[in-house]
Structures are given as structure tokens and as C-alpha cells.
Give the backbone structure.
Amino acid sequence: MKTILSHTEKTKITNSLRGWEGRTSTAETGEGWEIVTMKRASGFITSTAQKVTFLPNGCMTYSLFSDKRINLLSEKAKATESKIKELHAKALILFDAHPEAVEVNEAEPYKIEIGQRVFLDGYEKGQRDGNAIIYRIDSTDWGINYLTVDIDTLKLSTVSHIRNYKQKFGIGTYYTEGDKFKGSIDELNNFVIEAKEKEAKENERLQSSKMLEAQLRAGKIEEGKKLVTIPADAKTVIVADMYQDNSDSQTDYFNTSVAFFVVLAFSSNDRNNMQELRKACLNYEETKVFANNSEFEHTGGHSYLPNYYIGSSDWSGWKVNKNKYTINLETEAGRELVYLAAAEGRYFVPNVAEPTKKPIGSLKIGAIEIVDYSEKAIAVIGDTKPIKDQLKELGGRFNFRLSCGAGWVFQKSKQTEIEKLIEGLK
């Protein structure tokens, strides 16, 4: 006995941005066909029937490679409303007569029920691997979820797409008709209870492990703070990233990632500068070889490697670059990464002794005077005209209305540089 799929329930002729088109769905939910008549970019009006699964939320899904697709007709014509109606009606007649558009109901279709065994086929797994049994079936707006328990490993899983092994196509989860759990529902439920208890214990263990890791991390951060003084003017960090190549040529799988990094230097700006990178290379034994060889300099940019770096061009090895994003020194999280590196022995920034600053009340050098203007600022007054350009380059701002007289205002951190500049005038 053959039953022809009905197409009279849901047919629409609409005008969209793509022009007039006709669509017919053969089911409300579950498996069915969608017949579409529309004009293509080739200039032909075509009608196709696609095997799909209609979801309760009104959407549909199908496999591009394994679900059947039928080409019903193709005609070169103008896609007017009447023409689309005419050709869509012809397509529905052709669809009803097509051998692949009918179902043979000589026997009842196989129904997936609780107790069905399913298995993954692919990734070196096959029909004989695992004993995952369906213990619950949930219907959602997006389809059906099959909840399984492996009665050997007590692993709980959820799968949303399973196929009959007779229709095997590629990697996926499959079932074999009649391959069911031999025990009772109570026995299956006992496996589920035991699996959930095991899962709860594992989650508790993972939570404890995370708490311990967080405590160890916090301890390292405090240790790193004692070892590192991040310069007040530092904007970025120069690091050496150790890349590892995880690609697999056998499966054509590509992957490269940073295994770890070491901190080489701080920078007062975020601009790419090869001279800065070369100087930073000298701070670490493994990267010194890059310092004086232009063959290791890369400025072209790459989606998988730093866009500007010194180091090996391979997918693995050291790459010296400015980390402008992950280690953001303006955030606590960014600074913590530097402290962690120091605590773990991955910090190679040379210790530079802070210059001893002279206490300022009013320091006079020749015709120029440096005044302690406020808690955070100093003022440079006097005959500054000969060095006004240099003072501006040092970040000074000229102000006519200072209480000590017209002059240049600076942060106190610039005191040593200003003194050197003025001393040079003698």
C-alpha cells in the first residue's frame, strides 16, 4: 500500500524581495517536504522539493548532504504572480507522481522509544562502542532531545539528531532497529540515578579543584606584586609568546596556540616599533638570537600569529610582540597576568633603580627655576624661551596664570629629565 503525501494544507504564494515565489509544506511538524517555486539568478524559474524536519516553533531543518532533494521543473520565464502560480501547480502534480515523494506503509514506521540504544559512528567509534540507552525523550520548540545514559560508564548525554543506521551518512549518532535495553524500566532508572550521583560527586570535585586553583592564583599574584613594579607611564607590555603547532596533517586539521608567554619589557606607548622589540629580545636568553637579524622581523600581519613581531615564521616557536589586548595594564586583570608571570619565573624585565630625586622647594639652575607647585606637579619658570620646544616635547604645558609666575607645568615624574635638560644649557 502506498500513501501519497498531502500538499494541500499549507501552500503560500508571496511576493518578497526576491520576487514572487510559491511554497508548499507537506506537514506541520516532523518529517516532510517543502516544495519551492521561484526565479533563480540564472534567469530560470525552478521548482524543487526538499526533505526537511518541521519544528514546533515553525522553523525547519535539514541536512545539506544526506536529506533528499528533487528537481521538479525549470523554465525560462518572467516571474509574475500568475506564472509562479501556474508553474507551482505543475510542480505539485510532478511531486505527487515522483517515486521518491511517496512512502511505503506496508509495515508500521519504526518508532524510537525509551530503552533504544544509540551510538556514535565516527572519530574511531562505531556500532560496537558504548552502551548509551535513551531514558527520556523531550519535545521542545526546536525539535526532540534524547537523554541517554551509558550503562557501562554511567555517562549522561543529550543528543538531538539520531538516524537509522540503514541511512548512514557521515559522522553522527545512529540507532539500529530492535537494538534495545534488555532490562526493565526500573533497572534503567537505577542506572540513571547512579549516573546522576556520580555526576554530582564529579561536579563537587571540580568545584573544590577550582576553589583551590583560585586560592593558589591569588597567592601567586600577591607574591608577584612584591617582585614587580609596573612603571607609572607603562601602557603596554612586550612579551615573548611560545607558540605550539597542534595541526594534524592526516586529517587536514590546523591549529596553533600560545602555550605560555614571558614578559620582556614595558612600553610607554602602544605603537608598533621594531627597535623596541629588538631591545626587548636581549632581556631573555631564548630570544637574543632574534635581536640583530632582520630575517626574523615580520610586519605583514596574520590572522593566527601576531600582526607585528620578531621571531620564527613557523606556526610554533617564539614570537616577540607588544601585547596590546590581553595584558591591558589599565585593568586589574591585565596587571595580574604580569604578577603571575613574575611569580612563576616568566618575568625578565631588568630591574632599573629609580633615580634619587632631589626634594624640591625651589631649585634654581642658572636663569631657570624649578618650583614645587602642588602635590603632583612642578613648574618651570624663568628664561625658558631657548628650550621651549624641548619642554613641550617632554609633555609640558605653558600657563600664564601660575601663582609663581608664567611657566611650564609638568608631572613630578618628569623632574629628572627636566634637570638634565637645564643642566645641558651650562
Remarks:
- The chain is about 20% helix and 35% strand.
- The chain has a mean pLDDT of 87.
- The longest strand covers residues 256-267.
